[in-house]
Recover the amino acids of this structure.
């Protein structure tokens, strides 16, 4: 217990980095994912193909490799591409999570029946009005569970950044372990991750409940 | 009054509708009957602009209209879909008010008054705040009718209005159609139910399958 209290400040400091990355990734990749998801339902084939390629590559390769590409790979190409640690991982995470969210939103959009579009059409709603008032509100409800799963995965994925030397919760845990030569710091790390995923789960449940007003 | 002149429609070379002509006076009810696959729904979808006609013209009150231009043709042709296509995330009142406020840019207060009058007329008083999933099939259908009516269409089209209803509700929708007729609403009703068709129709057209 003493050790736990002793290492806690350092671990909480690391948690800040973890949370910053988590927050930035969510704020950026959710709207981007919605945008890419909407665009991917276009009838313009080249755009569709391009988005498919992007999603295929990103979902088919490890996030860790993508982080390496941006942080270690790009600087080898040109010195212009030297990017700081935090911006590098934020870029990698946003590119990665946008692909996953886009795929979820695309599925959600395609689950809206043709009848909804036709109902809106004969009433004279424009495409944009239909998207905003009819499609997106229903899509948000259908995709919530899948989006929620990704968000929980994101909490844990943030630990990958320790490979580029960012002082996140994971790295703080390893340092404390080596300094104290004790397993307790890792237990505290686990408890903090559990607390984070726990909070996220509760928030998601509340949001899902909000959408329960219709079926 | 609505006139359909020389309407033809084919799907991938197969003629579904061949040179159809229809003329319907204001306040009349036209029933379209015919075998399954005969093109009844297709005819209705052409009139309501959900399919493009290969050839033909549609005239409403001596004016040619292009039903596929829904935003311009606003409020000319109303549709009650077979599956109703209500918006499940909106209340009954919101379903009704969406298009008038968004498309015809009418003041919310005025739309609400009209919407409530129409709901009351269709026996839906007290259902304003409910969501479609809370309604029975017959109630959903009346909401669909109400949603079309708030746009003050010149013609109201129904696709198989009896198909999703219990047999005893058939008479109730017939009554609604006849009441709207008395108010001067021009209506086109697609059905495969001959008895129902005869009961409501001033005019009856049989769409035969063209081989
Ligand atoms: N979008 C489409 N593409 C190709 N063929 C179509 C399309 N819509 C309808 N058809 C064909 O047109 C024909 C007429 O269909 P339609 O739905 O108009 O018939 P219907 O008279 O309404 O039949 P039912 O009584 O079963 O509803 C059918 O052979 C159908 O397969
Ligand atoms: Mg049909």
């Amino acid at each position: 217990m003493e050790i736990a209290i002793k290492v806690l400040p350092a671990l909480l400091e690391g948690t800040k980095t973890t949370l910053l990355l988590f927050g930035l990734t969510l704020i950026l990749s959710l709207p981007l994912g919605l945008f890419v998801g909407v665009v991917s339902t276009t009838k313009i084939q080249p755009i569709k193909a391009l988005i498919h390629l992007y999603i295929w590559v990103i979902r088919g390769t490890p996030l860790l490799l993508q982080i390496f590409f941006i942080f270690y790979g790009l600087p080898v190409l040109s010195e212009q591409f030297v990017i700081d640690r935090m911006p590098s991982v934020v870029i990698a995470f946003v590119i990665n999570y946008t692909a996953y969210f886009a795929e979820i939103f695309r599925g959600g959009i395609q689950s809206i029946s043709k009848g909804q579009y036709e109902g809106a059409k004969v009433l004279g709603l424009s495409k944009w009005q239909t998207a905003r008032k009819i499609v997106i509100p229903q899509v948000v409800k259908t995709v919530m569970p899948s989006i929620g799963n990704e968000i929980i995965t994101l909490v844990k994925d943030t630990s990958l950044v320790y490979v580029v030397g960012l002082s996140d919760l994971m790295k703080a845990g390893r340092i404390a372990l080596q300094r104290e030569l004790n397993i307790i710091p890792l237990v505290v790390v686990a408890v903090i991750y559990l607390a984070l995923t726990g909070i996220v789960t509760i928030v998601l449940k509340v949001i899902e409940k909000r959408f329960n007003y219709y079926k | 009054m609505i006139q359909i002149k020389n309407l033809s429609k084919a799907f991938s070379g197969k003629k579904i509708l061949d040179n159809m002509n229809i003329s319907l006076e204001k306040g009349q009810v036209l029933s379209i009957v015919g075998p399954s696959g005969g093109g009844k729904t297709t005819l209705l979808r052409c009139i309501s602009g959900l399919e493009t006609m290969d050839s033909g013209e549609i005239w409403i009150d001596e004016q040619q209209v292009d039903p596929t231009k829904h935003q311009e043709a606003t409020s000319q042709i109303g549709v009650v879909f077979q599956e109703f296509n209500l918006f499940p995330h909106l209340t009954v009142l919101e379903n009704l008010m969406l298009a008038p406020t968004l498309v015809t840019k009418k003041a919310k207060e005025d739309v609400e008054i009209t919407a409530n009058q129409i709901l009351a007329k269709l026996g839906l008083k007290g259902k304003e705040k409910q969501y479609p999933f809370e309604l029975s099939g017959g109630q959903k259908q009346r909401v669909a009718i109400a949603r079309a009516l708030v746009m003050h269409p010149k013609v109201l089209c129904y696709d198989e209005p009896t198909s999703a209803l219990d047999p005893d509700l058939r008479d109730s929708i017939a009554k609604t159609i006849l009441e709207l007729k008395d108010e001067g609403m021009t209506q086109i009703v697609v059905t495969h139910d001959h008895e129902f068709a005869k009961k409501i129709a001033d005019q009856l057209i049989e769409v035969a399958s063209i081989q």
